[in-house]
Amino acid sequence: MGAYILRRLLLIIPTLIGIMLVNFTLTQFVPGGPIEQIAAQVQGEGDVFANISGGGNEAGGEELYKGAYGLPPEFIEELEKEFGFDKPPVQRFLMMMGNYLRFDFGESWMHGRDVIDLVIEKLPVSITLGLWSTLLGYLISIPLGIRKAVKDGSRFDSWTSGVIIMGYAIPAFLFAVILIVLFAGGSYWKIFPLRGLTSGEAIFSELSTWGKIKDYIWHAALPVIAISISAFATLTLLTKNSFLDEINKQYAMTARAKGLTERRVLYGHVFRNAMLIVIAGFPATFLGAFFGSSILIENIFTLDGLGLLGFEAAVRRDYPLIFGTLYVFGLLSLIVGILSDLAYVLVDPRIDFESRDG
Questions:
Q1: Contact at 8 Å (CB) between 327 and 106?
Q2: Core-most of 17, 106, 108, 245, by most CB within 10 Å?
């Protein structure tokens, strides 16, 4: 297993380089870069995106800067040098990756701070949403899925399936709006706060340890529930189908024939095999909660996390921040995939990835 993990770790570097190369190439054709935005501000033309019809700052945009805005060529050249656009794209990419491999992400153009400091500052919020929503989904979905498999075809299975399908059909952001309307003072009850993960530094610092925990849970409840809804539906049906597939296999029937109770058969024999596919879905579940829904949920609940930070960076074309967060996201995704394989072995030691690779 050690050799397999080592190979997976070594594959992280070329995989990250491939991810960054694709996204770096795409940015060469995106209009409205930082130089265009600065030029628009200098000319007092407001939102740059309302004035740009083509040509990005990284691909054929030089004539646009000098002609459309009427700015001196020296000023444009100075901006290009400051942002590093005076170098060829290949050289910029190689320099960027060399720095990123040392975790040197440079400085954010929008915030004027080191990207790594911003990522570290915002990461706890996104981890909170991803981790707690994933744990909540697993704690509810696995027992419910097992119960539905055991009671397959019953009234319990039918009405819970209806609820699950409704949950799957509702997008996370729409469910978040519904929660706000119902429970955050939108139109009905004001039970939960509308923004942030704490009550503010001044109030939060004066609370006791238990008070801080309650305040944290109180603020995190709605966004975590909103993110969990779609993953909860998918995971429940996955668990049910996995257990249904294993319950009627020969080894389970043999165990029953030996006189074992249904509970012993279910949790002593079926559980380990049925949970393999559920564990395999852990990376997708976690990353979906961490990355997929976090942008919208963080915007809706005004949570200062990586999702909101990345969204603002994309709007402002803050390339160091965009690529820095993308690099962190990609790295975390690959590490979670390795952890998923380790969980496979933990649940079923018979699995040998090294022999499969060989």
A1: no
A2: 108
User: What is the rounded (10 degree) CA torsion for 180, 181, 186, 188?
Assistant: -120
For residue 294, give Cα distances in angstroms to 172, 173, 177, 184, 230: 10, 10, 14, 19, 13
Q: How far apart are CA 245 and CA 252, in angstroms?
A: 11
- Residue from 280, 161, 159, 300 nearest 227 by CA: 300
pLDDT digits 0-9 by tens, 149-183: 888 888 998 899 888 888 778 887 888 888 888 88
**DSSP-assigned letters across all residues of 151-162:** TTTSHHHHHHHH
Coil, helix or strand at residue 261: coil
Q: Which among 315, 311, 341 has a CA at the least distance from the CA of 325?
A: 311
Do 295 and 264 touch, CB atoms closer than 8 A? no
Nearest residue to 292 via CA among 274, 312, 307: 307
N residues, the chain = 358
Residue pLDDT, tens place only, 72-130: 777 777 777 777 777 888 888 888 888 888 888 888 877 888 888 888 888 888 877 87
Q: Give the domains, in start order, of the chain with CATH numbers.
A: 31-88 (no CATH), 115-185+223-357 (1.10.3720.10)
* 59 DSSP β-pair partners: 56
The residues, any chain, with a CB within 8 Å of residue 210's CB and separated by 6 or more, are none
Classify the C-alpha dihedral 87-91-93-96 as positive or negative.
negative
Q: Considering the entire predicted model, what is its pTM?
A: 0.69
Which DSSP string corresponds to 54-81? S-BTTBS-HHIIIIIS---HHHHHHHHH
- Residues 31, 56: Cα–Cα separation, whole Å: 4
Torsion angle of alpha carbons 68, 74, 77, 79, nearest 10°?
-80
Q: What pLDDT digit, counting tens, does each position of 247-256 carry?
A: 888 888 888 8
The SS3 of residue 304 is coil
